[in-house]
Amino acid sequence: TFVPRAILVTGGAGFIGSNFITHFMAANPGCRVVNLDILTYAGNLKNLVGVEKSPDYRFVRGDICNAELVRELLAEERIEAVVHFAAESHVDRSITGPEIFVRTNVLGTQVLLEESRRHREAKAVERFRFLHVSTDEVYGTLGETGYFTEETPLAPNSPYSASKAGSDLIVRAYSETYGFPALITRCSNNYGPYQFPEKLIPLMIHNIVANKPLPVYGDGRNVRDWLHVKDHSSAIETVLKGGKPGEVFNIGGNNEWFNIDIVQLLCDLLDERLGRPKGESRGLITFVKDRLGHDRRYAISAAKIKRELGWEPSYTFERGIAETVDWYLANGAWVEEVTSGAYRDYYEKQYGGE
Ligand code: NAD
Ligand code: TDX
C-alpha cells in the first residue's frame, strides 16, 4: 500500500474536503496535510476545528489555477499525493453562471496536473499519486432501472457535470499520455455535517426549522443515491492507498431515495425534535418549477471498490440522517454564518425573495 508522508488537499475548507482532512489526520498521524483553498462562499475554516492546531496541518489560502503557487507548495512541502476536491459544486449555480465552473473545474484541474507531473518528473519525491475526486453525475441520467458502473459512457447534462467530466478526461489524458499516476473516484450524493445549505438535505432542514416553504423541483420523483460524507472520506483514503493508478472507482452506498420521500422524512424527524404536531412540517412542502435539464435518476454500482479494495460504507441511512439533523440543530450558529450575506442574495435569485 501507498502511505504518503505529505499530501496536498485542494478544496479542504469545503464540505467533503474538510470532512476528509479531519478523517485522514485522525487515521494517519504524522502525515503532513497542506490544505489549499481559495475560500469561496462554500469554503469555511470553521469546518476544520479540531485539526487546525495540529503541527502536521497547514492552511494556504490560494487558487488552484495559480500555477506558481501550486509549484511552490508541491516542492516546499515535498508533497507525495494530491487529493483534489476543489471545485464549484452546485448544479443550480452552474445553470445561472457556467463560466466559473469551467475555469475552476477544468482549468484548475489541468494546472494541478501539470504542476504535479513536473514535480514528479523532476524527482522531487520518490513516489507520487494524484487522486481526482469526481461525481456520478458525469454519467448523466438513468431510467427506472440499471446502475452506473465504471464502464458507463460519460454523458453529462448540466454545466456542472460537464465541467467535472471535462476534468475527468484531462486526468485520463495525463495518465495515458504521460504515464502520470492518477486515480479517479466517482461518488454519489453526499450528506452529513458542514454541508452548505444550498444542497437538498441541509436546505430542507434549514427551511423546516425556519418555517419556510420547502421547494421541491418538478414532481419530486427524481432519485438520488445518498452516502454519508464520512463513508466517502474512508473510500477516498482506501483508493489513495490501494487503488491502481490509471483506474476509476465508483463510490456509493446502495441507498436510493425519491426526493419527495427524503423531504417528508426530514419533516417527520424535525416535527419530533421540535415538538411540532406530527405531520405539521409537511404542510411546508411546495412543488416549484423543475430544474433545467434535471437528471431523473442516479444509482451507483460500487461493486468494484468492494471487490478490489474491500471498502464498504459503515453508516446506515437511518443513523446518518438522524445524526445529521441533530448536527444542524446543534449548529445553528454555523448555519447562520454561512447563510448570511452573499448566500441571501443567491437564495433570493434562486427561489424568489420572501
Ligand atoms: P464544496 O462546494 O462544499 O467545496 C468546494 C471547496 O473548493 C470550497 O472550500 C471552495 O472554497 C474550494 N474552491 C473553489 N474554487 C477554488 C479554487 N479556484 N482554488 C482553491 N479552492 C477552491 O464542495 P463539496 O460538496 O465538498 O465537493 C467537493 C468535491 O467533491 C467536488 O469536486 C465535487 O465535484 C465532488 N463531489 C461532491 C459530491 C456531493 O454530493 N457534494 C458528490 C460527489 C463528488
Ligand atoms: O431546493 C431544492 N429542491 C430540490 O428538489 C434543491 C437544492 C434540490 N432539489 C432536488 C434536485 C436533485 O434532484 O434534490 C436533488 C438533490 O439536489 P442537490 O442537493 O442540488 O444535488 P445534485 O444536483 O444531485 O448534485 C449533488 O450530487 C452530486 C452535488 O451537489 C454535486 O456536487 C455532486 O457531484
UniProtKB/TrEMBL annotation:
A single GO molecular-function term is: dTDP-glucose 4,6-dehydratase activity
**For this protein, what is the EC number?**
4.2.1.46
State the reactions this protein catalyses: dTDP-alpha-D-glucose = dTDP-4-dehydro-6-deoxy-alpha-D-glucose + H2O
- Residues covered by the NAD(P)-binding domain: 8-324
Question: Could you identify this protein by its name?
Answer: dTDP-glucose 4,6-dehydratase
Q: Which InterPro entries match?
A: dTDP_Gluc_deHydtase (IPR005888), NAD(P)-bd_dom (IPR016040), NAD(P)-bd_dom_sf (IPR036291)
GO terms of biological process kind? nucleotide-sugar metabolic process
**Cofactor entry:** NAD(+)
